[in-house]
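Exercise 7. Given the encoded structure of a 192-residue chain, write a plausible sequence.
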């Protein structure tokens, strides 16, 4: 990491730091348990690198104001979902995370998102928009833990989703999906 900054009030220091850094997601897992519990089971792997700026009391990282422009290639989620050429903008202000720009190339396609999470509340409200195009379903299904592996086609989708992170039954949203040249399942129901 390369950074510079200022420190004020030695009795209760406020930091103002800017610079470039690399974050090894494999080794950062202990940080998630302490500072970002919503990410502790995310199974993140890879290295994110980029510019950052942060300001806040030295002993309360969850209350920092933090902005970062990061990229990584590849980034793995849940130990199996691969995002190539990931780029994102990350903002943390007043314990609200906002990711206004996320772009990646999963499974020969394109993925984008605008997401937010509110860390002020224990149930962690969240929401956002996610969209994708030209996703190779066969490549995606190989990464999924499913018995049905004979899928093919090219998918595009868009969705909005909101809810409480710790309560899947609270999730609501809407969306659409388009599959071209698809093979989703095979049946003998109509054979003579």
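Solution.
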């Amino acid at each position: 990491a390369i950074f510079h900054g200022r420190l004020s009030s030695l009795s209760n220091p406020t930091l103002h730091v800017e610079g470039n850094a690399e974050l090894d997601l494999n080794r950062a897992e202990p940080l998630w348990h302490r500072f970002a519990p919503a990410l502790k089971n995310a199974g993140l792997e890879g290295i994110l690198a980029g510019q950052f700026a942060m300001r806040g009391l030295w002993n309360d990282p969850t209350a920092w104001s933090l902005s970062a422009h990061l990229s990584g290639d590849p980034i793995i989620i849940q130990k199996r979902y691969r995002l190539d050429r990931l780029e994102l903008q990350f903002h943390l202000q007043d314990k609200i995370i906002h990711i206004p720009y996320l772009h990646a190339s999963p499974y020969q396609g394109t993925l984008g998102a605008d997401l937010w999470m509110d860390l002020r509340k224990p149930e962690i409200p969240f929401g956002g928009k996610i969209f994708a195009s030209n996703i190779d379903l066969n490549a995606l299904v190989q990464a999924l833990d499913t018995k049905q592996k004979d899928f093919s086609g090219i998918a595009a989708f868009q969705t909005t989703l909101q809810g409480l992170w710790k309560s899947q039954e609270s999730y609501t949203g809407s969306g659409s999906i388009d599959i071209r040249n698809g093979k989703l399942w095979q049946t003998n129901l109509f054979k003579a």
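Remark. The two ends are 68 Å apart (CA to CA). Students should compare their own answers with the one above.
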